[in-house]
C-alpha cells in the first residue's frame, strides 16, 4: 500500500516508476515502462535492469542501454522504521526532440566534453553547472562546488564581489576578462573568460562563464610581439624608434634568481592580454621598469605610456592632472587635457596609488567602471581606452585595514597582482645588477672597472638593502666616482665615509639577527609567511580552502604567495 501511494505521486515526474522492497524485488510498477525491461512483481533488481542495485549511485543519474534504446535511471530511497523501499524513476532518452529530460542529459554530456571551461550560477548565486574543463582550469572539484554559493566556493567574502552577481543585476556581459584561478607549483595559471546573463521574459534567470586555457595562443602572441618589438628597436639600449614615453623592456630587467625569472614570465603573460594590473613592491624594486616592460611587450607598444607619481602631486592638483580642466573650472583654470586623455589607447601608470586621497579613489573607481571621464568644470564625457597599471609601495591588505585604500578600488585594480620581492630576498640578483651598473658607469666616467673585491662582495651580500636596486645603483655610482683611473676593482676603501658607516651598522644588525635578536618587522614578516604556509599545507595547497579557513580572500592568499615566493612542493 505504501509503495503504491508513493508511486502514484512520483509518476508525474518520470516516464515510469519501479519500486523495490528491502529484498530488492519488484513490489510496484507504474507509468510507461518500455518492453526492454517489463518488470514483474517479485523480480530481482538485476533481472530487471541488468546491474546490481549497489552499482547504481544514489540520487544521481545513470544512463543504461537496452534493445538499442537509451534510458535515464534515477535511484531514490524511502525509509521508515518498518519499511525500506528503493525507487527507480525511468525516462526514455531515445527521442531527444520531444523529451526535455533527454535534451538536458545530452546538453550536459556535450558541455562536459568541451575544451572550454563552463560554470553557471542560478538566480540565488548557487553553482548549478560546472564542467570537467573548468575543473582542470581552476583545480576544483565539481562535486564539491556544485550547490555552493559562488562567494563561498571562491571565497569572495561577500556576494557584491562576485562578477556573476554583478552581471545578474546589470544584465550586461563581461567580455574578455583575465584572472588566475589555478596554481601549478605556486605559479598562477591565467585564463581568459567571458561572463554572460541568461535572460528570459526580461528577467535574468542564470549567469554563466566560458573560460579558455590559451597557453598555446599566448606563446604565439609572445613570439609575435617579441618580433614586433625587435623591429622597433633602434639601438642596443632598446630606445624605441617612436617616442612612446618609455625607456625599458623586459631585456633591461637583470637578474639570475628563479623568483625574478618567474616574475618576468608572469608579467609577460599579463602584457599579452592588455589587462589592468597592480604592481606591489618596496621603494626601489623596479615597479616602473616592470610597468614600462609590460607596455612594450603588449600590442600597445605604438601608443603612449604616461606615468604619474600620485605622491608627488599635491592633492588639490591631482584630480585636474588626471582628468583635465576646462577654462573657468576654477581661478586660473584653462582648457587642458588630463593624463587619461594623453594616454589615449596606451597605458596610464599610477605610481604610489597608495598615496591617492580616499575622495579621489572613489572618482577613479567610477572612471574604471564606466570607462569615461569628465574634465573639471564640464559635464561633457570623454571615453577612456587606456590600460591602467597601478603601483603601491605598501601592502594593500594593510592599506585597506587602516582605511588608506578603498576595498572596491583594490579589487578592481588588483584583478592581477605582481608582487616584486625586495632585493634582500633575492640575493642571486645582486651580482648581475652590480655588473650592469659597473658597465653603465664605466661608459659615463671613462673608467675600466672589472668588478668588486671579495671583501666588498661579502658586505654587499650581507647588507639588507632597504633602498633596494635604486640604493645599489647609488652605491656603485659613489664607488666609481671615488675609484682612481688605474683601479680595476672596487673595494670598501672606495666607499664614502657615510656609506661605510651605514654598511658597518647594518653588519652589526645582521650579527644580532644571527644571535636571535631580529627586528620586529622582520620577525612579523617571518611569522606571517609561516602562518600562510601552514594554512596552505593544511588545505593541501588549495588556495580557496586556505582562504576560507583563514577568513580572507583568494586574492589575499595569492598576494602573499607571491610576496613570500610560496610554491607547492
Automatic annotation (TrEMBL):
Classification lineage: Bacteria, Bacillati, Bacillota, Bacilli, Bacillales
Listed GO biological process terms: regulation of DNA-templated transcription
Residues of the Sigma-54 factor interaction domain: 253-481
Listed transmembrane segments: none
Protein name: Arginine utilization regulatory protein
GO molecular function: ATP binding; sequence-specific DNA binding
Gene3D superfamilies recorded: 1.10.8.60, Homeodomain-like, P-loop containing nucleotide triphosphate hydrolases, PAS domain
InterPro entries linked to this entry: AAA+_ATPase (IPR003593), AAA_lid_NorR (IPR058031), Homeodomain-like_sf (IPR009057), HTH_Fis (IPR002197), P-loop_NTPase (IPR027417), PAS (IPR000014), PAS-like_dom_sf (IPR035965), PAS_fold (IPR013767)
Matching CDD domains: AAA, PAS
Organism: Scopulibacillus darangshiensis
Coiled-coil zones: 90-143
Superkingdom in the source lineage: Bacteria
Keywords: ATP-binding, Coiled coil, Nucleotide-binding, Transcription, Transcription regulation
Residue ranges of every copy of the PAS domain listed in the record: 103-148
Amino acid at each position: 500500500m505504501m509503495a503504491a501511494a508513493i508511486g502514484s505521486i512520483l509518476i508525474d515526474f518520470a516516464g515510469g516508476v519501479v519500486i523495490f522492497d528491502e529484498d530488492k524485488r519488484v513490489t510496484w510498477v507504474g507509468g510507461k515502462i518500455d518492453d526492454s525491461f517489463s518488470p514483474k512483481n517479485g523480480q530481482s533488481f538485476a533481472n530487471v535492469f541488468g546491474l546490481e542495485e549497489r552499482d547504481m549511485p544514489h540520487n544521481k543519474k545513470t544512463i543504461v542501454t537496452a534493445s538499442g534504446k537509451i534510458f535515464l535511471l534515477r535511484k531514490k530511497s524511502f525509509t521508515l522504521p518498518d519499511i525500506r523501499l528503493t525507487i527507480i524513476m525511468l525516462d526514455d532518452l531515445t527521442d531527444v526532440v520531444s523529451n526535455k529530460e533527454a535534451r538536458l542529459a545530452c546538453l550536459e554530456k556535450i558541455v562536459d566534453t568541451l575544451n572550454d571551461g563552463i560554470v553557471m550560477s542560478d538566480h540565488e548565486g548557487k553553482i548549478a553547472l560546472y564542467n570537467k574543463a573548468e575543473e582542470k582550469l581552476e583545480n576544483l572539484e565539481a562535486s564539491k562546488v556544485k550547490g555552493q554559493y559562488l562567494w563561498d566556493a571562491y571565497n569572495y567574502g561577500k556576494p557584491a564581489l562576485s562578477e556573476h552577481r554583478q552581471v545578474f543585476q546589470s544584465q550586461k556581459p563581461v567580455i574578455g576578462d583575465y584572472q588566475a584561478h589555478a596554481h601549478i607549483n605556486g605559479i598562477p595559471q591565467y585564463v581568459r573568460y567571458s561572463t554572460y546573463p541568461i535572460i528570459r521574459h526580461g528577467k535574468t534567470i542564470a549567469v554563466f562563464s566560458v573560460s579558455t586555457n590559451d597557453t598555446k595562443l599566448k606563446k604565439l602572441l609572445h613570439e609575435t610581439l617579441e618580433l614586433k618589438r625587435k623591429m622597433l628597436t633602434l639601438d642596443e639600449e632598446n630606445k624605441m624608434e617612436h617616442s612612446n614615453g618609455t625607456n625599458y623592456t623586459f631585456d633591461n630587467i637583470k637578474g639570475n634568481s628563479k623568483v625574478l625569472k618567474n616574475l618576468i614570465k608572469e608579467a609577460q603573460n599579463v602584457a599579452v592580454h592588455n589587462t589592468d594590473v597592480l604592481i606591489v613592491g618596496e621603494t626601489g624594486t623596479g615597479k616602473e621598469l616592470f610597468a614600462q616592460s609590460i607596455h612594450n611587450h603588449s600590442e600597445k607598444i605604438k601608443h603612449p605610456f604616461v606615468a604619474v607619481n600620485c605622491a608627488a602631486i599635491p592633492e588639490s592638483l591631482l584630480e585636474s592632472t588626471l582628468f583635465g580642466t576646462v577654462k573657468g573650472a576654477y581661478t586660473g583654470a584653462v582648457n587642458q587635457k588630463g593624463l587619461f586623455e594623453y594616454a589615449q589607447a596606451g597605458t596610464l601608470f599610477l605610481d604610489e596609488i597608495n598615496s591617492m586621497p580616499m575622495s579621489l579613489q572613489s572618482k577613479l573607481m567610477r572612471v574604471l567602471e564606466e570607462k569615461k571621464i569628465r574634465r573639471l568644470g564640464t559635464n561633457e564625457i570623454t571615453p577612456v581606452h587606456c590600460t591602467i597599471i597601478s603601483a603601491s609601495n605598501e601592502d594593500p591588505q594593510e592599506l585597506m585595514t587602516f582605511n588608506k585604500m578603498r576595498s572596491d578600488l583594490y579589487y578592481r585594480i588588483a584583478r592581477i597582482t605582481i608582487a616584486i620581492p625586495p632585493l634582500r630576498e633575492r640575493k642571486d640578483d645582486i651580482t648581475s645588477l652590480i655588473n650592469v651598473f659597473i658597465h653603465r658607469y664605466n661608459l659615463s666616467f671613462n673608467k675600466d672597472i672589472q668588478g668588486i673585491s671579495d671583501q666588498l662582495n661579502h658586505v654587499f651580500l650581507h647588507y639588507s638593502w632597504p633602498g633596494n636596486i635604486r640604493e645599489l645603483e647609488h652605491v656603485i655610482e659613489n664607488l666609481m666616482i671615488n675609484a682612481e683611473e688605474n683601479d680595476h676593482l672596487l673595494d670598501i676603501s672606495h666607499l664614502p665615509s657615510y656609506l661605510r658607516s651605514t654598511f658597518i651598522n647594518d653588519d652589526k644588525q645582521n650579527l644580532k639577527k644571527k644571535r636571535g635578536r631580529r627586528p620586529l618587522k622582520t620577525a612579523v614578516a617571518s611569522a606571517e609567511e609561516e602562518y600562510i604556509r601552514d594554512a596552505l599545507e593544511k588545505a593541501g595547497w588549495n588556495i580557496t580552502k586556505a582562504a576560507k579557513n583563514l577568513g580572507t580572500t583568494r586574492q589575499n592568499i595569492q598576494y602573499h604567495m607571491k610576496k613570500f615566493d610560496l610554491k607547492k612542493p
